[in-house]
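Posting for a labmate who doesn't have an account.
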Amino acid sequence: MTTLMPRVLGALDRFHAARPWDHNAHYHRWMLRQLPKRFGDALDVGCGSGELVRLLAVRAGSVQGLDADPTIIARARELTDPATPVNFLVGDAPEGMPRGPYDVITCVATLHHLPFTETLTRFRDCLTPGGTLVIVGVARSETPGDQLLATVSAVLNVAMALLKNRGRGAARPVAMTATVRPADMSFPDITRDAHRLLPGARLRRRLFWRYTLVWQKS
């Protein structure tokens, strides 16, 4: 058994390397369903190559995408039609965030790279009354529920890789080239602190090692 497990894990690594798919982009359509059909100004924090920014722009008056990596921001600009009402900025959140205010703020798989309390406070303060915050985040696995969901996700991850990649040799999505950092907060800790800062926020564990947070400012 001790020699079998490394072989199994190695085989899974090779399988997924040959059939990559974007776990974050998987939630983009869900995020759009949490938002109004039309809204004014939006901000996507940790925008990467701009996939979600371009989706938001279909509904928004204008969208700003913020990322700390100048290389990925340059790529986002290359991939975006100049006629689209978007603007990509290089900067660190929360201190480098534009002042807003915004009707919509989104953040995907970025919050665990940032100071949690300061960032959520800045998101809250930059939203207009009635504005919506939607986060897809990453939490540290800690509870038995986390471990069960991770096991289910591992199985479904194989199925999704086969579904989204019909053969070997698939190119790794641009959005998956960022440095990966493990989360240091558990989901219970995230829920406790989020409810303190954002009363009424709705948080839920999700498949594929993610959680979601939705909050509307009163």
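Reply:
Got it, the structure tokens are right above this. The radius of gyration is 18 Å.
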